[in-house]
Amino acid sequence: MALIETQPELMARFLHDAAHYPGGHAAGVVRPRTVDDVSEILRQAAARKGPPCWHVLTVGAQSSLTGGATPFGDIVLSTERLTTLQIEGERIRAGAGVTLQAIEDALAAVGCWLPPVPTYLGATAGGAVATCAAGAATFKYGTIRQWVAGITVVLANGDVLELRRGQRQAASLVALPALQMPVVPKCSAGYFIAPDMDLVDLFIGSEGTLGVIAEVVFRTAPLPAARCHALVPVADEDTGIRLVAELRAAAQQTWRTHDANGIDVSAIEHLDARSIAVIREDGIDRKLDITLPSATGIVLLIELELSPSAASADLWQQLETARDDDAADSPLRRLCTLLDRHGALEDAEIALPDNRARAAAFTELREAVPAGVNRRVALAQQQIDPGIYKTAADMIVPFERFDDMMRTCRRLFAERGLDLAVWGHISDGNVHPNVIPKSADDVTRGQAAILALGDAVIAMGGSPLAEHGVGRNQVKQELLRRLYGSTGIDAMRDLKLSLDPHAVLAPGVVFP
Ligand SMILES: Cc1cc2nc3c(=O)[nH]c(=O)nc-3n(C[C@H](O)[C@H](O)[C@H](O)COP(=O)(O)OP(=O)(O)OC[C@H]3O[C@@H](n4cnc5c(N)ncnc54)[C@H](O)[C@@H]3O)c2cc1C
């Protein structure tokens, strides 16, 4: 039987997630080793009609950015001991607690990868599926949803479901509400609802409120033959957005035509001018020896995949001669020509596939921005006001509306006098506007700006909740209500209660 542990030093490890939501406290911790252990603990919880009832919060690596992995008096069910890992042909079966880094390492050894992994590789298989995580390469490969071939899920009553995609429809287990999800590349906003949907899809993105995902079977892909990474400073945001639009169109054409010389972009990340200022203030550009011209309005980080034939060519030679009129056609030449057309080639730096150190430096530059902003928030909280905390959004629109969204975003935050840094996954139309607050008032004004931006994003056909989920964050829960209306929320809550009538699983997560 799974043991409930209550040693204060052990419980202290589980009281926070990456959102630093205040006030976390737990009734105990269980660390099951098997699916049967998970089932046993949930059966015990279901049997206690209370009070005191048992509420169970499942956690993986607690890298949640929404407070969804912060316990509030719950028994924490940690998946850290669910660590079986097995490659099965073109699939990989992972216990919920296996980190994405361990999955990447195991797959790399056999020449494969899991393309949609989020930026943080310390996240677990179960957590990534429970939040329907997405990554930089979602532009080409979709979100984690498209890569889940099956799951083992334990329901609130302890029943174990072994689900394989294609075998069982969700409607065979629950009554599905008639909700219309926004049509965007990623949407982690409450429950996934679609006509004739697979039961596997109901649990993906359900943030631990419908069941405990104990094991996941992922599809995998062969590693690309080679990848180039380009760091491209562009003078202003509008030009940067037009450049991305052309890159997206070129990549989509390459996928259609399989042109070996086509531009095959899997990801474009971006950092805005304030993010670049954070990098400069923290000396990251100097440390990494990366030159960003003073007039940079946006930095694009482009990942270009090469086909086996393109990868076997002399890439140095191609790069050297990319501007020559008589240079041979190649993906690199086409990329350089496109950058040149937007005045962005001169300042671009391209790391060829063998230059892994440089590609890692580009990633470090990108990651330094959220880290630098989070550090500023924490300092302001310590030095100015404990009521200051992270005030950030996660919005997505169909790419055709991206420039509208950015104009609206800039106006809404500027009207409120807020210091704003924006970065994100521009190839998906997904941004993370983050306030750099100087006072608790900035937090309040920032939340108002996020809600107003959410309304605009919904009107543009987007989702105000793209990839991080909803969690306990009150602003995100309100954004979910604005997306689907109070009736939609009631319908989702009814769905939850039909599977978990005593609300044992993750009360307070997704719904107030
Ligand atoms: C630096 C950084 C970068 C990030 N970048 C990205 C990114 O690019 N894309 C992205 O999508 N996210 C990103 N995130 C957010 C986070 O990493 C992802 O949401 C991740 O998938 C969460 O995994 P986890 O194991 O940490 O889950 P946790 O944080 O522990 O849990 C997240 C939620 O899932 C539930 N849960 C966890 N495990 C299970 C399970 N086995 N069964 C049922 N429910 C479960 C929890 O109850 C909680 O509601 C980032 C976070 C950080 C800190």
Shape: globular
What is the class of the largest domain in the CATH system?
A: Alpha Beta
Total domain units? 4
**Rounded radius of gyration (Å):** 23 Å
Q: pLDDT average, as an integer?
A: 95
- Stretches where pLDDT is under 50 for at least 5 consecutive residues are none
Total beta strands: 18
How many separate helices?
16
The spatial strand order of the largest sheet comes to 15-12-14-13-17-18-16
Helix/strand-derived class?
Answer: alpha+beta
Which CATH architecture of the largest domain is right? Answer: 2-Layer Sandwich
* CATH fold node name of the largest domain: Alpha-Beta Plaits
Please summarize the sheet with the most strands.
7 strands, antiparallel
Please provide a written account of the structure.
The protein folds into 4 domains: 4-80, Uridine Diphospho-n-acetylenolpyruvylglucosamine Reductase, domain 2, CATH 3.30.43; 85-222, Uridine Diphospho-n-acetylenolpyruvylglucosamine Reductase, domain 3 (2-Layer Sandwich); 226-365, 2-Layer Sandwich (Alpha-Beta Plaits), CATH 3.30.70; 372-494, Alpha-Beta Plaits. Helix content is 36%, strand content 19%. It has helices at 8-12, 35-47, 100-108, 125-130, 138-141, 199-203, 237-257, 273-281, 284-287, 308-311, 315-320, 331-341, 356-383, 402-415, 440-459, 474-499, and strands at residues 4-5, 25-30, 56-59, 72-78, 85-88, 91-95, 112-113, 148-154, 160-164, 212-219, 221-222, 226-234, 265-272, 298-306, 349-351, 395-396, 420-425, 430-435. Helix 14 packs antiparallel against helix 15 (440-459) and helix 15 (440-459) crosses helix 16. The mean pLDDT is 95. It binds flavin-adenine dinucleotide. The site of flavin-adenine dinucleotide has 38 residues, from strand 3, helix 4 and strand 10.
